[in-house]
Write a structure and sequence with these properties.
Strand content: 35-45%
Largest sheet: 5 strands, antiparallel
Number of strands: 5
Shape: globular
Radius of gyration: 15 Å
Length: 81
């Protein structure tokens, strides 16, 4: 039996299967572990940018990249010469 790879509260990146190269920007938080369906774990995820939650399959999720530090954000924002 399949178990859930991600835990409630964990931040993940979401890639919709209909558009395999598209990774939705921003982090999604796992808010609920749903029952396994067709041998695949499902999750309810939430983004602070959206007014609704999504129900997704585990194959559509990956670990979220680490947040950019403030120092790196400033460095990236400076124009280069």
């Amino acid at each position: 039996m399949q178990t859930h790879r991600f835990a409630i509260g964990e931040l993940v990146a979401y890639t919709e299967q209909r558009f395999p190269g598209l990774v939705w920007r921003g982090n999604y938080e796992i808010v609920s572990l749903l029952p396994v369906r067709n041998d695949e774990a499902e999750y309810q995820i939430r983004s602070a940018d959206l007014a609704y939650d999504r129900v997704v399959r585990e194959c559509e999720l990956s670990k979220a990249p680490p947040p950019i530090s403030e120092e790196n954000q400033e460095r990236q924002a400076r124009p280069t010469m």
